[in-house]
Amino acid sequence: MHWHTHTVFNQPTPLSNSNLFLSDCALRDAVGREGAEWDTDLLASIGQQLGTAESLELGRLANGNPPELLRYSVTGERLDDVRFHPAWHLLMQGLCANRVHNLAWEDHARKGAFVARAARFILHAQVEAGTLCPVTMTFAATPLLQQTLPKPFHEWLSPLLSDRYDPHFAPGGQKRGILIGMGMTEKQGGSDVLSNTTRAEKCNDGSYRLVGHKWFFSVPQSDAHLVLAQAKGGLSCFFVPRFLPDGQRNAVRLERLKEKLGNRSNASSEVEFLDASGWLLGEEGEGVRQILRMGGLTRFDCALGSHGLMRRALSVALYHAHQRQTFGKNLIDQPLMRDVLSRMALMLEGQTALLFRLARAWDRRDDVEEAALARLFTPAAKYSVCKAGIPFVAEAMEVLGGIGYCEESELPRLYREMPVNSIWEGSGNIMCLDVLRVLAKQPGILDLLTDDFAQVKGQDRHFDRSWRQLQQKLRKPQEAQGREITQQLFLLGTGGQMLRHASPPMAQAWCRMMLDTRGGSLMSEQLQHDVLLRATGRVG
Ligand SMILES: Cc1cc2nc3c(=O)[nH]c(=O)nc-3n(C[C@H](O)[C@H](O)[C@H](O)COP(=O)(O)OP(=O)(O)OC[C@H]3O[C@@H](n4cnc5c(N)ncnc54)[C@H](O)[C@@H]3O)c2cc1C
């Protein structure tokens, strides 16, 4: 472009019209290896569609035009609704059409459905992560609802399992698709849900009246929320619909929407229950157990979501580095930048391998050992992946230099989005305490780990040393070591997958980089070449 004053050159174009699935060799390999080969054609088509300039623009619009609280109607009646930008609805439509909210729960769900869904989730995360909140809560709530949905709402099961997104302001039973939210956190405590003060009193017809509040109540436009409240028998889980069976609005008042650092396309509200109607799910006093069961699923999604954001940040950084020249060379060919980008790509190779092994464990959770692996590595992955995402995106930003810090580069949006996955659904320390709890209480878990790691023993000295160190720590684990233990466990789990499935030079480089306490060493030029090829979708 020629202006009067200067010629514009050496300005990379933004990354658009790439296939988000085909450009990620680690993801393609993992999907096939862990049992969802059958989904690869569809994933390629989803990846193509989501990577278009039009899809990315929808993400930008949804994030740049946050939802608006409509507390009253124009005639002054209580409305308690939320208005979204049309881009939000289009993105939600895509998520539901791709069954990210229910793929694993259909009657005849295919083997590997968890794996396929994890891949779809990661692809959607790269467009606008705010939309993942409603689908992850709906996904996690569905198995419980399939078992316990109260009688007056039985006709809701069909829209719950449909592939439709239906934002109409109408009772769930009349809709083609529904969404479910969750309300646990109150002002006085979120991690410690036992401190909940919302009360639930049983009525003659078997329903309950809820009085109290929730301090965080995301997706308030959901057709129902699963809400924790104190009943006579203890903390219990209630189905609190937006509309009552007689078509009236339930007495759930939206007080305000949170003004958040990121996650801006998604609505998170504060609510009060003014004698709201709720229906008990399961038995009184089972609330914590039920929430924890759902928590496993939402926590896994947090790790997938952060991984998707990291993947997008890396793609943008790589695309830029291939075009931008400094000191007479493309950035990607400057040895120091090549090292930075190769390490980032290698880190994501490991994450992908572990996350998809974990997806397979979730898929096969009827097997005791697979269920135990999922139980242990889900909080570990949530802790480690979500924490790692924050500096990772900052590094990607720096690859772009000044423009990386500016909104048009996508990276500020990814950066603002990142910390939330570490905070909600159980913040970092809570994940580490959970890992310690599983290690202490899950029968046979240490034997399972030992057997699993024994399969790769002797292949890499950093891996072997790190496992010996962890075994020592596990003899008498201290609560204050929770982060150290969780991180090391995650890295060993990941290293084990790399040693099994990556090429030996790549697996060993990963172990040096992540497990060598002296900080690892340089990768060979050939390995850098291979890693970077794989990260851009060409085989390495
Ligand atoms: C954008 C957003 C949306 C949300 N949406 C929802 C929603 O829809 N529904 C819902 O129920 N909640 C929601 N939350 C709330 C979220 O789940 C809680 O904020 C989170 O669980 C932490 O609870 P808290 O804020 O009360 O912090 P606290 O419980 O006070 O914890 C503060 C810090 O202390 C740490 N900590 C707590 N106990 C210990 C301990 N024993 N040892 C060491 N460290 C400890 C925690 O890890 C955390 O870092 C949302 C939060 C955000 C940011």
The span between the termini is: 36 Å
Count of domains: 3
Number of strands: 11
Count, helices? 17
Helix content: 40-55%
CATH superfamily of the largest domain: Butyryl-CoA Dehydrogenase, subunit A, domain 3
Structure commentary:
Strands 3, 4, 5, 6, 7, 8 and 9 form a seven-stranded mixed sheet that branches. The protein has a two-stranded antiparallel ribbon with strand order 1-2. By secondary structure, the chain is an alpha+beta fold. Helix 2 (about 40-50) packs parallel to helix 5, helix 5 (about 115-125) packs antiparallel against helix 9 and helix 6 packs antiparallel against helix 8. The chain contains 17 helices and eleven strands. It has three domains: about 25-155, no CATH class; about 180-285, Butyryl-CoA Dehydrogenase, subunit A, domain 2 (Beta Barrel); about 290-535, Butyryl-CoA Dehydrogenase, subunit A, domain 3 (Up-down Bundle), CATH 1.20.140. It has helices spanning about 25-35, 40-50, 55-65, 85-95, 115-125, 130-150, 155-160, 285-325, 335-365, 370-400, 410-425, 430-440, 445-455, 460-475, 480-500, 505-515, 525-535, and strands at about 70, 80-85, 180-185, 200, 210-220, 225-230, 235-240, 250-255, 270-280, 325, 330. The structure holds flavin-adenine dinucleotide. Flavin-adenine dinucleotide binds near residues 192, 216, 424 and 426. Flavin-adenine dinucleotide binds near residues 185 and 216.
